[in-house]
């Protein structure tokens, strides 16, 4: 996972709200349920997103994170991580953009039982 240390403006609440931007996140293919009958390290993506939220909390951005997703990962961010899909971003390879509000981030962390 690669994070941008400079904050970006939040799209869900742009006035003075900042997000930690996840520039890149990837897990090995053998960790995907679809690629293997027995994933080797199931949950790695969840742990990485939780760490990004924690770092956002430490930075004072209240758990807000944002990211662009490859099409094959959109379901993970929307259904599993429960991030809000903002829409396709014509300025960034027409990839879908996802973001957490502070409330969404806190609720998701509580659901997956990963404390900040």
Structural class by secondary-structure content: alpha+beta
Count of domains: 1
The best one-word shape is: globular
Q: How many β-strands, per DSSP?
A: 5
Average pLDDT level: 88
Structural description of this entry:
- With 116 residues, the chain is α+β, with helices and mostly antiparallel strands.
- It has one domain: Aminopeptidase, CATH 3.40.630.
- 28% of the residues lie in helices and 27% in strands.
- It contains three helices and five strands.
- It has a five-stranded mixed β-sheet.
- Strand 2, helix 1 and strand 3 form a beta-alpha-beta unit.
- The mean pLDDT is 88.
Could you provide a short overview of the structure?
This protein has 116 residues and is an alpha+beta fold. It has helices spanning 44-58, 74-80, 102-112, and strands spanning 2-9, 18-24, 65-69, 84-89, 95-99. It is 28% helix and 27% strand.
């Amino acid at each position: 996972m690669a994070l941008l240390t400079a904050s970006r403006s939040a799209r869900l609440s742009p006035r003075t709200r900042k997000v930690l931007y996840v520039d890149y996140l990837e897990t090995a293919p053998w960790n995907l349920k679809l690629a293997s009958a027995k994933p080797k390290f199931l949950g790695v993506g969840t742990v990485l997103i939780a760490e990004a939220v924690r770092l956002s909390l430490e930075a004072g951005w209240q758990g807000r994170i944002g990211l662009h997703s490859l099409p094959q990962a959109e379901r993970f961010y929307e259904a599993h991580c429960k991030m809000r899909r903002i829409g396709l971003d014509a300025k960034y390879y027409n990839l879908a953009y996802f973001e957490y509000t502070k409330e969404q981030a806190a609720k998701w962390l509580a659901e997956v039982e990963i404390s900040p």
